[in-house]
Predict the structure.
Amino acid sequence: MGILVGTGLVVRIVLFILIAFSVLSWTIIMFKFFQIYKANSDSERFMDFFWKSKRFDAIASQVDRFTGSPLTVLFNEGYGELGKFVAGSGKADPSVLSTDLGGIENVSRALRRATNSEITRLEKYTTFLATTGSTSPFIGLFGTVWGIMTAFEGIGKTGSASLAVVAPGIAEALIATAIGLVAAIPAVMAYNHFQHKIRVLINEMDSFSTEFLNIVQRNVAGK
């Protein structure tokens, strides 16, 4: 704290920016951790329930139990589009499908739209972590360079280059780089971790969309 109080105006501004980046990054890290953890947990439970259930209407009545899962959004969109297709064909039972592939294509498009929407939701705010990880070291380096310039300017004015004169200014300058690394390292690690988890969820959404369409097509072929 003594070093922070003794820094110049420019270095203080740099440190304030870096601390703000760090606080925002940790807020996002906590939020994304719980969001993605819930998405994974609810997706596992939803898939177990999905394959144990025999009817789409029974699944639709229970999707509120798995609100954190992106798969429930895909199911709702696909089931809703399937219901529109069945209603348009004049059939009362969603299991009674015509062989018109236009209806299946509509379901496929609905699943793709829902997948893209969920990917956007899951990736929200992660770009800030990438930005923090890539820019914080350079912002800290700027503060360090500026602090060293100020330190050497002070040496020139005093005319003394002893360790007692040089060391405090250099220490004040280097703290900017240290804070920059403190902000950047957790942000980079969290970003890579979340990107991996999101890729897993994207693969699950793609697999679920394929299985959902296969079920619809098998019903079509069976009629």
Notes: DSSP finds seven helices and no strands in the chain.
